[in-house]
Amino acid sequence: MKTFAAVAAFAATVLAGPTPTTPELAPRASSSLTPITVKGNAFFKGDTRFYMRGVDWQPGGSSDLVDPLADETLCARDIANFKLLGLNTVRIYTVDNTADHDKCMGLLADAGIYLVLDVNSPLYSLRRDRPGPSYNAVYLQNIFATIDAFAGYSNTLAFFSGNEVINDDTTTNCAPYVKAVTRDMRQYLGSRSYRQIPVGYSAADVNSNRLEMAQYMNCGTDDERSDFFAFNDYSWCDPSSFTTSGWDQKVKNFTGYGLPLFLSEYGCNTNKRQFEEVTSLYSTEMTPVYSGGLVYEYSEEGSKYGLVQITGAKANPLSDFTALQSAFKKTANPSGNGGYNATGGASNCPKKSANWDVENDNLPAIPSAAAEFMKKGAGLGVGLKGKGSQDAGGSSTGTAAPGSGSVTAGASGGPSSSSTKNASPSLQSAMNVQPFVVSGIVIAFTFVGAALL
Question: Catalytic: which of 212, 224, 265, 297?
Fold first, then answer.
């Protein structure tokens, strides 16, 4: 009997241990929202047109990086204010991709709020002065790890592949690298069998090449095209109007554009902010082209754009908070579909010019080491620290063939397209058969032991 007990215990110990090749599933958030999808040039929540009513949320700013989604107390405090404003979207510029975000993403979902997330960080991003070397496998590994950390949440609305990489006419040569990163992110989502979370770019408020960048991100083969385009716009300075601000011309310029378009930052503070632009942004004079926007910014970080002043553990509303709250309250979304372009469609690639320094439509090929992540996954990210990627080596060595960013194979052992962190337990977790195997072996040894008595 001692021999049986030892063998049975050994079998139980060996078989009950973790399987090295099977990744442990992350804990689930408490709530789920209907994922946002793209139809034509608009976002939809199910069959209902979705307009972003949001703010840019990065307490501490770029000088004191804090991941607001890693601190349940902080995000609960700020979500209370988001609810008072009537928000449905927040944008975060930097997160710690090694932290646990379940609780805060669940709190956002409970409040009906979606996340638009920048995947870059100051140490892991493209350099506008040296875009080629900074587009490398180390960089892509970390942004793919950020995708892994957030793709499972149903209220992850979209990913930004970059923010203001091009900030004047002399930096438009960065465009192929921005577009390559966007392509790679979309391919990673598909190859790892995640749902189709929209990926796009947040452009700077540069009038001379904004339209060219929008066209460029929507031209070429389907694998190269973005899912949306956004830009930062501070041209409406109260008191103003739809025509005085020049927004009427932007609507005219983007009429017929085939992708969803929204303002990733807005809210000029040259004069007292009344957010008069809200009335136009959510009216039918703009909704055939625009899908809302994100106000810059939630917390006051020294540039006089803040809606609240953070003092210790408190976030106290400022006058701009009250003004935005009032503007949102009195402005309803248009009824119906807002006149969107249901067919969408690709743009023609812009030609090289004095304000567009891109020779042709070629994109850099994904670095060979990064291509392996499509099958194997990215692994762990580096969080907010790390050594940085911009001079890490392993950059692209060639030009991509058209269509090379298409999803050609699913990942072995990767998450299924229906799997989310917000799924029910029966859908989220594959059955663990180890307890049954162990029990079977123990029972078998019991019978053998009984027969020997």
Answer: 265
Q: Return all residues near 60 (Cβ < 8 A) that are at least 6 apart.
A: 66, 299, 301
Cβ density class 185-203: b for 16+ within 10 Å, e for less: bbbbbbbbbbbebbbbbbb
Picking from 380, 374, 409, 441, the residue whose alpha carbon sits closest to that of residue 11 is 441
Q: Which residues pair with 90 in a beta bridge?
A: 55, 115
Specify the pLDDT at position 385: 86
Q: Which two tokens stand for residue 393?
A: 């080596």
> Domain residue spans in the chain?
2-20+423-452, 36-376
Q: Which residues pair with residue 89 across a beta bridge?
A: 54, 114
Helix and strand numbers, DSSP H then E, in the chain: 14, 13
Q: Which residue in the list 164, 285, 301, 372 is annotated as catalytic? A: 164
**Residue 224 annotated to the active site:** no
- Backbone angles phi and psi of 323, in degrees to 5: -65, -45
Residue 296 DSSP symbol: S
Active site residue 164: yes
Domain at 36-376: CATH code: 3.20.20.80
Chain segment 404-440, per-residue pLDDT in tens: 999 864 344 344 333 344 433 222 233 343 433 334 4
Give the CA count within 13 Å in the CB-facing half-sphere of 119. Answer: 33
Q: Are 103 and 72 in contact (CB under 8 A)?
A: yes
Selected residue with higher pLDDT from 402 and 367: 367
Beta carbons within 10 angstroms of residue 441's beta carbon: 17
Largest CA distance in the chain: 97
